[in-house]
Backbone:
C-alpha cells in the first residue's frame, strides 16, 4: 500500500455522542499518525445502531485505504460492532480458541472464572490477525482486503494505546504505510493570538513557496506546523526554515515539538538544579496537576497548596492578615505573598502563585470575573502580573494555568544568567 | 420540522485530527441535545480541505435534518468553510454591514482597530439569520432550506457555548425540534463494572418490554440511562422504574442525573455544614481540582496540599519521620497520617488523602505501579483503603480521584446518623 494513504477513524460509542466522554482516542491516534506522516483524513463518531454501523463502515471502506475503529468490542449484548462490520465486508468471523485461552488465563490470574458472555470476544476475521491485548479481554483485530487495511481496537484507553504502539505502529511501518521519520516540524508559541502569529510568519511563507504552514490553537498556545507538499523540502531544509521562524517569533517561541509549558519550565529548573512549589486559589489544583503529569516531576516539583480560604492563606502560607484586609485575597499583593510564602514553607528556590476570580460568582469593580493575579518568587527577585480572560470557569482556569507557566518560562529565560550565578552560590 | 429529527455535527479543524485538542464541542453539544431529546446521530471531523468540506457537508445535508458545524469561521486565510458550504448549498453569501458594526465596536472597546481580514467574518447567508457573538468576532450563522436547518458556530468554546444556550436552544425549542422536557432518566453508579451493572439491571429490563437502557462508562463510573422507544413510557413511569433500579443497584447508586462524584460529596458535606481539605501525592492536584470545578466550592472545600516530597509530608502536614521510615510514603499508614494531618492543619472536619504510584516509574514488590492508598479522616473515625489500577499515568490519576471520592461518598452515607449527631455537638 503506497503513500499517500487516506486514513479514516470511526469511533463507536454512544457516550461520545451524548456528552459523557471526550473522544481521547481520536486525539491520541491523530497525534501518533500525524507524527509519522499519515494525518487522519476524516473521522466519524457513530451511534450504536446496526444499520448505521454498516452504512458508515461501508462508506469509509469505499473511500479510504486504512480504516481504524475504536470501541464496540465489549462483552455486553449491545456491542455488535464486530458482527456488523464483518457483514459489511462480506467477511467471515471464526471462533479462535487461542483467544479464549488468553482470556481464561487473565481471569485465572485475577482469581475469577471467565463468564459465558466473553465468548463473543474470542472471534476474529477468518483471514485476519489478532492484536493481543495484555490489559483487557477484547483483543484488537487486523484484516486486509482489496489492498486496504482494517484495524479494530478495544475502547478502554489503557488497552488501546499499548496495542497501537506495540503492534499497530510496527505493522504499519513494516508495510511502509507509516514512515519511521517525523513528518512535520512544530514550533510551539504562547503569548500572541493566531492572527498575530500568522502575520509574523508571513515573510517566511512568502520566501518559501513549497512550505505548508498550519496553525493549531489551544488555551493561549498557538502551534505552528511546518511541512511541505510532496516532501519537496527535506528535513534539514525544514529545520533551517524552523530556525528562521524561531527568530521572527521572538519571545513567543516556547519550544520545537510538543512539550507542555509545564515540561519546558520543568526542564529549565532541572538544568539549574532548582526546585519549585506552587500556591493556587482559583486554579484549584490544576497548576500542580500540570507539573505532576510529568513523569519524574518530583525531581523539581516539591508540591503545592490549594488555598481556597483566607484562613489557609494565613495559616499554611503565612500571608499576613493585614495584607488580606487591605488588598483582599484577589490582588497582586496577595499573589506575591503566596508565591514567597509557598517557597519559604516548602523550602524551594521558586514559588509560583495564582489568585483570581474564575467565575461565575465573585468579582468586583476592580477585579471583575476573569481577573487573575500571578505571583512569582525566584532567587533573583519577586514579581507580579495581572491578566484578564473571558470565558467559563473551566476556560478561565485553563487559561490562567497557561498564563502562569508562560510567564515563569519568560522570566526564567530573561534572568538565566543571574539565576545561574545564584545557582553557583547555592549552599 | 417534526420529530424524530436526524442530527449531524461536523467539526472543522485540523487540530482535532492531528492530536492537538480533544473535541470538547462534540461532548458539549451531545450533552445539551441528548438532554432535550435529540441525540446526535452522527458526527464527523473534517480536515481543512475545500473539497473535503464540500463533500462531507453535502452528504450530511442529504442524510440529516439538522446539521450543526463548529469552527472554520476565523479571519485567517485558511478558514474557507463558510464559502465552501455556501457553494455546496448553492446559497449566496451577502456582506452584512450590521455584523461589521458589531465587530468594529468590539475592537473599539479593546482600544484597537478592526483589521482588514476580519471583513470576511461579516458575511451571512442571503436568506439566513445571524447568531450574535458577544465574546468574539465571528458570529454564528443560521440557514433553513428544504425543511432542514443549518447552524454554524464559531470554534472557541467560550463563544460557542453562550451562542448555543442563549440563541440556538430557544430557536430549536420554538421550532419544536427540541423538547423543553428532559428525555431520559439517568442513574449514575460507581464501584462496579459495566457487565455487573448490566446483570443487576436484567430483571428490570425483563419486566418492562418498552424500556430502553444504555450504559456509559468513564473512569470507574457507569451511567445507566433509561428511556423508552416512541415515548411509550411517560416521565412518571420512567421515574418509578428508576426507583426500582436504584434499589437493585444498592450502594453503587451515586445519584440521579449528571452530578460529579465531587459534587455529590460537596452536597453531603454542605448538608452537614462541614468542611474538607485534601492531601494528595500521586494525584498531584487533580483531587482538589475536582472540588474547585464546582462553583461555590469554598463553602465546603478549604483547600489542599500537593505533597510530592517526604519533606512536604513532614513539614507541612506533620507526618512523623519514623512513620515514613518504617512504612514508606506509599502506605496505608502514611495515607491516614496525611488525611488527619491536612484536616488538622487546615482546621477542617474532614480530610481525604491519596498516595501511590501512578507510574511509569516507582513501585516495588509490595506496592507495584498502580497501587493507591486512600486515607479518610472524619469526626467519627479514621479509615484507609488500598486500590490497584492498570493503565497509564493519567488513567491511574483519574481512576484514583474517582476511587477516593466514591469511597468518601460511601463512608458519608454509612455513618450519616453518627455524623449528624456529631454535627449537633459542633461548637
Residues:
Amino acid at each position: 500500500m503506497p503513500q499517500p494513504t487516506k486514513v479514516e477513524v470511526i469511533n463507536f460509542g454512544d457516550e461520545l455522542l451524548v456528552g459523557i466522554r471526550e473522544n481521547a482516542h481520536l486525539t491520541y491516534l491523530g497525534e501518533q499518525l500525524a507524527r509519522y506522516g499519515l494525518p487522519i483524513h476524516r473521522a466519524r463518531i457513530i451511534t450504536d445502531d446496526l444499520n448505521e454501523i454498516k452504512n458508515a463502515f461501508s462508506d469509509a471502506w469505499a473511500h479510504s485505504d486504512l480504516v481504524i475503529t475504536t470501541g464496540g468490542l465489549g462483552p455486553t449484548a449491545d456491542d455488535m460492532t464486530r458482527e456488523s462490520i464483518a457483514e459489511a465486508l462480506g467477511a467471515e468471523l471464526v471462533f479462535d480458541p487461542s483467544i479464549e485461552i488468553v482470556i481464561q488465563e487473565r481471569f485465572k490470574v485475577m482469581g475469577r472464572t471467565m463468564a459465558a458472555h466473553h465468548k463473543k470476544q474470542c472471534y476474529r476475521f477468518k483471514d485476519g490477525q489478532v492484536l493481543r491485548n495484555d490489559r483487557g479481554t477484547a483483543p484488537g483485530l487486523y484484516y486486509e482486503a482489496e489492498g486496504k487495511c482494517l484495524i479494530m481496537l478495544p475502547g478502554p484507553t489503557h488497552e488501546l494505546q499499548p496495542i497501537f504502539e506495540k503492534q499497530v505502529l510496527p505493522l504499519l511501518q513494516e508495510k511502509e504505510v507509516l514512515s519511521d521519520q517525523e513528518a512535520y516540524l512544530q514550533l510551539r508559541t504562547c503569548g500572541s493570538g493566531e492572527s498575530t502569529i500568522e502575520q509574523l510568519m508571513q515573510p517566511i511563507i512568502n520566501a518559501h513557496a513549497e512550505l505548508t504552514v498550519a496553525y493549531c490553537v489551544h488555551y493561549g498556545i498557538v502551534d505552528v506546523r511546518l511541512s511541505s507538499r510532496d516532501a519537496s523540502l527535506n528535513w534539514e531544509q525544514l529545520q533551517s526554515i524552523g530556525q528562521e521562524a524561531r527568530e521572527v517569533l521572538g519571545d513567543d517561541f516556547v519550544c520545537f515539538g510538543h512539550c507542555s509549558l509545564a515540561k519546558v519550565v520543568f526542564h529549565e529548573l532541572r538544568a539549574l538544579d532548582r526546585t519549585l512549589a506552587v500556591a493556587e486559589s482559583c486554579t484549584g489544583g490544576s497548576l500542580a496537576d500540570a507539573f505532576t503529569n510529568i513523569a519524574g516531576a518530583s525531581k523539581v516539583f516539591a508540591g503545592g497548596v490549594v488555598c481556597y480560604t483566607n484562613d489557609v492563606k494565613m495559616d499554611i502560607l503565612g500571608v499576613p492578615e493585614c495584607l488580606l484586609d487591605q488588598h483582599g485575597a484577589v490582588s497582586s499583593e496577595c499573589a506575591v505573598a503566596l508565591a514567597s510564602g509557598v517557597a519559604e514553607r516548602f523550602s524551594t528556590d521558586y514559588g509560583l502563585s495564582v489568585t483570581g476570580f474564575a467565575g461565575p460568582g465573585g468579582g468586583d469593580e476592580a477585579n471583575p470575573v476573569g481577573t487573575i493575579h500571578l505571583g512569582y518568587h525566584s532567587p533573583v527577585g519577586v514579581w507580579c502580573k495581572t491578566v484578564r480572560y473571558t470565558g467559563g470557569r473551566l476556560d478561565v482556569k485553563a487559561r490562567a494555568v497557561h498564563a502562569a507557566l508562560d510567564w515563569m518560562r519568560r522570566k526564567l529565560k530573561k534572568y538565566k544568567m543571574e539565576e545561574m550565578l545564584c545557582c553557583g552560590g547555592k549552599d
Observations:
- The mean pLDDT of chain B is 90.
- Chain B has three domains: 7-174, 185-256, 261-424.
- Residues 59 and 75 of chain B are 26 Å apart (CA to CA).
